[in-house]
């Protein structure tokens, strides 16, 4: 009878001692733990949280897509921010865009600012818009509207195009159509100067 009583006594003491030992270890951890060092915290980017919440800006955004006929469009900007009055419109600053005109011809556009209209599916570039093509043409205007799903460019204001032996100014321009069959229309006092033999 002595052995069973000794076994029961040991089990009873273990049931009491183990929780007390665990409690002692936890107490030791809290008592001797060091205070957190603010200087040793994980580094975070210096961001003005209030400004980020207020303006909801995105830095260095990039938009890329493909037109219906397979041509590529690529657009980058310094900042992009939705307009509070129209959530479908995104304001852009320092815009650069590149789009394919033909198999071996691309156009690179730059503008001081612009806007993406998600409802109208177009990009409006403003503020000294300039463009250059790999075929040697350069374009300048105050505003240029580029469709996001079809190859359509529209300049509602004065536009100037300069190339090898060609100088053209017009009050407006509209270009539309698929690759290889694009139609360009100039209106509003078109003036064309052509110097043959300069190419």
Could you please describe the fold and organization of this structure?
By secondary structure, this protein is of the alpha+beta class. The chain has two domains: 1-33; 49-194, Sandwich (lipopolysaccharide transport protein A fold), CATH 2.60.450. The protein is 19% helix and 49% strand. The chain has two helices and 14 strands. Residues 29-33 and 40-49 have low confidence and may be disordered.
List the helices and strands and how they pair.
Blueprint: H1 2-32, H2 49-55, E1 58-59, E2 62-66, E3 72-76, E4 79-83, E5 86-102, E6 105-117, E7 122-133, E8 138-147, E9 152-155, E10 159-163, E11 166-170, E12 172-176, E13 183-187, E14 191-194
Antiparallel strand pairs: 1-4, 2-3, 3-5, 4-5, 5-6, 6-7, 7-8, 8-9, 8-10, 9-12, 10-11, 11-14, 12-13
How big is the Rg? 34 Å
Count of all domains: 2
Structural class: alpha+beta
Spell out the CATH superfamily of the largest domain: Lipopolysaccharide (LPS) transport protein A like domain
Look up the CATH topology of the largest domain.
lipopolysaccharide transport protein A fold
Q: Tell me what portion of residues adopts beta-strand conformation.
A: over 45%
Tell me the name of the CATH class of the largest domain: Mainly Beta
Helical percent range?
Answer: 10-25%
The total of helices stands at 2
Q: Judging by the overall fold, what is the CATH architecture of the largest domain?
A: Sandwich
Largest sheet: 14 strands, antiparallel
Cα-to-Cα separation, first versus last residue: 118 Å
Element-by-element helix/strand order: HHEEEEEEEEEEEEEE
Q: Which shape, going by the Cα principal axes?
A: elongated
Round the mean pLDDT to the nearest integer and report it. 76
Unreliable spans are: 29-33, 40-49
Number of strands: 14
